[in-house]
Write a structure and sequence with these properties.
The protein has one domain. Helix content is 65%, strand content 0%. It is built from 4 helices and no strands. α1 packs antiparallel against α2 and α1 runs parallel beside α4. It is elongated, with a radius of gyration of 14 Å. The N and C termini lie far apart (36 Å).
């Protein structure tokens, strides 16, 4: 196991990381490349669970970043070919 496996990540850093992953996935999808989305749902679920555990005063400032994340998810969905 890597030494970073148990290093806690701030919700803001996790949002940034997931956003970056989505940006790359969207760019690949828009260029016609096949992408593997396995694992994104687990990462998103873990992020949502972590944010849900925060006090409202700590979670509220994350709202703009979460809205941007949602927009990127929607953009990725629009870039994917139909099943």
């Amino acid at each position: 196991m890597s030494p970073c496996a148990h290093t806690p990540v701030s919700p803001a850093a996790a949002i940034d990381s997931l956003h970056g992953t989505l940006v790359v996935a969207r760019a690949l999808a828009e260029s016609g490349r096949r992408i593997d989305l396995a694992g994104l749902d687990a990462g998103a679920a873990a992020l949502c669970a972590a944010i849900a555990m925060l006090p409202p005063g700590q979670a509220r400032p994350l709202r703009p970043a979460l809205v941007a994340l949602l927009e990127e998810v929607e953009g990725l969905g629009a870039a994917l070919p139909p099943p």
